[in-house]
Amino acid sequence: QVRLVESGGGLVQAGGSLRLSCVVTGHTGGRSTIAWFRQAPGQERAFVAADFRSGSSTHYADSVKGRFTISRDRAKSTIYLQMNSLKSEDTAVYYCAADNSIILSSLRLGKNYDYWGQGTQVTVSS
Description:
- By secondary structure, the chain is mainly beta.
- Helix content is 0%, strand content 50%.
- The chain has no helices and 11 strands.
- The protein starts with a strand and ends with a strand.
- 32% of the residues are buried.
- The mean pLDDT is 95.
């Protein structure tokens, strides 16, 4: 059974930074893709960033490119999302997701991921 647990959310002022963590337990496969999505109130879930096939490549939404960085610590089975220069529009619940069979053209679609965490709230005050 694959389990994902996020942490690191909180309240931060605009321009500040947060680092989210997602601990992955269980067998995800040697070339799993792990991604971060977010959902703001009244909005649909949106892709944020992905680590494709265990570090083969990383991908970002245009809205966070240059501000957010996704990274993976294999020894700790943890994936991170470093968020800098936060804006009020970054306020959302952030989820990590994992899958073993994502293809590059579909990694931005949440419906393609089999495993999800419970989410962590990020609130950016202006």
